[in-house]
C-alpha cells in the first residue's frame, strides 16, 4: 500500500469491491497509462484517471457500480 493520500483514498474505495491485489494492480496500471505513478498521483490527475478506472472496473463491478466509483473518485476531498 502507498503513502500518497490520494491513492490511499482511491484504494479505500476499491479494496472492499475488488480486493487488495486487484486494487493495487489496477491502480498501478491505470496510473502508468496516464503518465504517472501511484506515489506521484495528484488531484489534477483524477480527471484522466477516473474514466480509465471506470473502464477497467466494468469487468469486475458492472457498468453502474464502475460509474459510481468513478464519480466518487472525481468528487473526493482531501
Short synopsis of the structure:
With 78 residues, this protein is mainly alpha-helical. Helices cover 73% and strands 0% of the residues. The protein has helices at 5-33, 46-61, 63-74.
Q: Can you walk me through this structure?
A:
The longest helix is centred in the first third of the chain and has 29 residues. The mean pLDDT is 94. The chain has one domain. 73% of the residues lie in helices and 0% in strands. Helix 1 crosses helix 2. With 78 residues, it is mostly helical.
What's the count of strands?
A: 0
Question: Helix count?
Answer: 3
Q: Structural class given helices, strands, pairing?
A: mainly alpha
Q: Give the topology string: H per helix, E per strand.
A: HHH
Helical amount:
over 70%
Overall spatial form: globular
| Tally of structural domains | 1
Strand content: under 5%
Compute the average pLDDT.
94
Poorly predicted parts: none
Task: Report how far apart the termini are.
Answer: 18 Å
Largest sheet: none
Cα-based radius of gyration, to the nearest Å: 11 Å
Which terms would index this structure?
78 residues; mainly alpha
Amino acid at each position: 500500500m502507498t503513502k500518497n493520500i490520494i491513492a490511499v483514498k482511491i484504494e479505500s474505495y476499491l479494496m472492499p469491491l475488488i480486493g487488495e491485489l486487484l486494487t493495487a494492480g489496477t491502480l498501478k496500471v491505470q496510473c502508468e497509462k496516464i503518465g504517472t505513478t501511484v506515489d506521484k498521483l495528484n488531484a489534477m490527475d483524477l480527471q484522466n484517471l477516473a474514466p480509465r478506472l471506470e473502464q477497467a472496473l466494468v469487468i469486475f463491478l458492472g457498468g453502474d457500480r464502475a460509474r459510481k466509483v468513478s464519480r466518487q473518485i472525481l468528487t473526493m476531498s482531501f
